[in-house]
TrEMBL record:
Highest taxon, organism lineage: Bacteria
Source species: Runella aurantiaca
InterPro entries the record matches: DUF4905
Protein name per UniProt: DUF4905 domain-containing protein
Length: 276
């Protein structure tokens, strides 16, 4: 006879992590290696400060958190590629063209290199193409090593694409033909009537829903996350205490075993899914 306890669904327990500044952007390695596949980079900023954080979503450990003297508040992330975080430095709101390209080693938080007057074009994870602007002339394209920033005598890299390990939920607006079906499913499971857009994802046999609703006797909307398994058993249903839509770039992400979301402006929630 089978042990029935083995058939019971594993309820999910969210872990919450707070930071010293609001989370402005969440980045993952789009060309990951084994060491960076579970590493996320958070761009933290308010009106006066800018910091960067490397976070291991499997262990919940902050690998490093600091600012860089080579950056200012006008520094912004370009992307995270093969263990390298790339940043553009801008002169200010009146100068939209980047004046500097900066590379940070994501695992250590060490400055890898700085290129004055260069702009990022694309990378294949090994090589890097940059451009250098010239007054009244076409920009100069340069091929470099991503790890060192040094010019190399090789063909320009082609833009590499690969299936993303991390994904964002699909947004279903109220005008979408599938919206009513999804909203009715959520109402049947939770008793809540969704309002506004619904974000939906599928991961390892689980269904994910991020939705807005009015709590009982409330006049403002709250956000909720709902996770159910293939038998429609609720593994997690948690309200995110916020009635303000996030301005964060990538505030919901998931891979095959983790869900990462912004619960508050300065708080990240990580939910681990059971592994087969």
């Amino acid at each position: 006879m089978k042990d029935l306890t083995l058939l019971r669904p594993i309820l999910l327990t969210p872990q919450h992590f707070s930071f010293s500044l609001p989370v402005w952007r969440i980045l993952y390695d789009t060309l990951p290696n084994e060491k960076t596949s579970l590493l996320l980079i958070f761009e933290l900023r308010d009106k006066n400060q800018l910091k960067w954080v490397a976070f291991d979503c499997e262990t919940g450990a902050v690998c490093w958190e600091h600012s860089f003297p080579e950056t200012t508040w006008w520094t912004s992330a370009i992307g995270f590629y093969s263990g390298i975080l790339l940043l553009h430095e801008y002169a200010g709101s009146e100068q939209p063209a980047p004046k500097k390209l900066i590379a940070i080693e994501a695992l250590t938080g060490r400055l890898a290199w700085v290129l004055e007057g260069c702009k990022f074009e694309h990378t294949d994870g090994t090589n890097l193409q940059t451009s250098r602007m010239r007054p009244e002339s076409a920009p100069i394209l340069e091929n470099r090593a991503l790890s060192t920033g040094e010019i190399i005598d090789l063909p320009f890299p082609s833009a590499q694409t690969m299936p993303p390990q991390w994904r964002a939920p699909v947004t279903y607006e109220e005008t979408n033909p599938y919206y009513v079906t999804i909203a009715q499913f959520i109402e049947k499971i939770t008793g809540n009537i969704p309002k506004k857009a619904i974000n939906y994802g599928e991961i390892s046999g689980h269904l994910l829903f991020f939705y807005y609703f009015y709590p009982t006797n409330a006049v403002s909307l709250s956000r909720s996350i709902l996770v159910v398994n293939s038998t429609k058993t609720v593994l997690l249903h948690e309200t995110i205490l916020s009635d303000v839509e996030s301005a964060v770039f990538g505030d919901y992400l998931y891979d095959n075993h983790h869900i990462v979301l912004l619960k508050k402006v300065d708080e990240i929630t990580v939910i681990k899914l059971p592994r087969p």
